Write the structure tokens for this entry.
Amino acid sequence: MTTNLDVVVNKQPLVPSWSTVAFFAAIHGLALLAPWYFSWSALGVMIFLHWLFGSIGICLGYHRLLSHRSLQVPKWLEYTLAILGALAIQGGPIFWVAGHRLHHAHTEDEDKDPYSAKRGFWWSHMLWIFYPRQEFFEYEQYKKFAPDLDRDPFYRWLNRYFILLQIPVAILLYVLGGWSFVIYGVFLRAVLLWHSTWLINSASHMRGYRCFQSNDNSRNLWWAAILTYGEGWHNNHHAHPNVAKAGLSWWEIDMTWWAIKLLQTLGLAKKVVLPVSK
């Protein structure tokens, strides 16, 4: 039975966070300076860091390891992967994991999925960040969805101070290559990595093919998979969220899986969850 309280909670007014809008606008604006600071070495730094923080940090660390526990690695390596994920500037590990677990638990539910695709492309792509709801953005509320991480003091610290990690990265890049490296390695990299990741929330729930009849509109989208190192095989993932491998057919390139296989070969990845059959 629906109560008046239910209606108030589910229909709460959306209020923009202007500080968040200003932050993202500033980063995008600084990224637009890239043509005036171009160098091939700076472009190489940007591509390398996009892969390191995106594929290894977000896709492997935040997503397949911390969110779904698709594999096990030594604690020192787990912490290293979490730091790389934090360097992507997509939120702390407790925030990211909690939101992703909610996405899987209530996929496309307009009230319970933080970035429900049923609210439209731009909502699932980025507007959900600009109109933050308390249950998804306030630590005391979202931490209950990642209790395993919240029990760890390191993850609580990283969740709170992740943004400060950009300072040593920017200093190192400046020392190595001046403002060109900073513009490409921090700002342009951040913007491209944001939109790459966000495409999985938006485009991969609207375009592409389906191999599995999951209870949502998740799709396998080849070009999104290329941009996100395998995450674009999204229908495969929603059908088998705890499986470490997203690309299940031979043509479904999954670069993050290659990294997991390397760790497994080196004896650093254990209990890797594989698909039963395809």
User: Anything to note?
Assistant: Residues 125 and 198 are 5 Å apart (CA to CA).
